[in-house]
Amino acid sequence: MLSWELPILLWLLPLALLPWFSHNTEKTVAWQAMLPHDRLSQFLTLLLKSLSSLAIAALLLALAGPFIPERLVERSRQGAEFVIALDRSRSMDDIFARPPRNTLPIEAFSTRSKRTVSGDYLLEFVKRRPDDRFGYILFSTRATEILPLSYNRDAILATIAAGGLGKGLSKTDIFQALSKAASLFEGEPYRGSRNILLISDGGEILDADEKTQLQRRLADMRINLYWIYLRTVRGMTLDEQEDDNLLWLDMPERKLHTFFKSLNTPYQAFEAGSLKEFAAAIDEIHRQQYQPLIVEERLPKQSRVNLFLYLALLCCAVLVMARLYTGWGVYRAYRQ
């Protein structure tokens, strides 16, 4: 729907009727028989007056500043909604996939920190999903909302790129992280697929009240949970194995993983002990989360002034051509 910068100018639109009150075409002739009934001339007269009125109206409408205001439109796309919860504890500054001390490296390993590797893969993940909506939080001793759910691709990429600045704290509070991530979906309509992507190298033993809150909240809001666990203890897996070290049985990471599996919501864990495993986890999440999605797109304000100016220009061009043709006809008549 059109809006106007200067709607008061619309009151001048009756001026477009001025061409119909022009009587300067009356001529005196000596013999009436010289004026045959010419329907084509009558039609052209009506056409030229109509074009004159249209040109005046178009110029007045252009001066009034027509525009379509900024608005939200819904479109059907393929994708999902993600809230990324990235661990910013001190351990995330350690080298990713470092081999144990006093051992010879069998294969080349990354010299980048877990934080840097996570940021690089997240940037690539966002770039591959143009129709998704992303939110972003950082957490250590407490969770901080950095970016609410947004379709703004530049803002999302800039937030992830800047998320690695500074040093982290020692404690990891997973409960705060998931609670804050879920809160970003509050008050939002369900669009097809809600996901929390948790990236952390540690776990936490939750108490009964925290477990109840998370279980109810994630289920009620229909949120899927993904956990990319950046393996810290070499050889330890989240699921128990027959040849497990006894020291691993009560690890917080395993306790947390066991709780996540009991949730009444889809959950999947990925263990990343190398760049290849991290990339495979991102690829699998990317493959799974292509669901029909209702996307809200914000369309900016659009000016429609040029449309009316082009219309006025076209009308004036026809009127000028008609005037030139009339002058040329009069000139030829006098020459003869």
Average pLDDT confidence is: 82
What is the assembly state of the chains in this entry?
Answer: single chain
* Proportion of residues in extended strands: 15-25%
- End-to-end distance, in Å? 57 Å
CATH architecture of the largest domain: 3-Layer(aba) Sandwich
Q: Helix-strand pattern, N to C? A: EHEEEHEEHHEHEHEHEEH
How many domain regions? Answer: 2
Classification by helices and strands: alpha/beta
Query: In which order are the strands of the major sheet placed?
Result: 6-5-4-7-8-9
CATH superfamily grouping of the largest domain: von Willebrand factor, type A domain
Largest sheet: 6 strands, mixed
Reported by name, the CATH topology of the largest domain is Rossmann fold
Whole-angstrom Rg: 35 Å
What share of residues is helical?
25-40%
The CATH C-level class name of the largest domain: Alpha Beta
- Assign an overall shape: rod-shaped
The total count of strands amounts to 11
Tally of alpha and pi helices: 8
Give start-end ranges of low-pLDDT stretches. Answer: 99-109
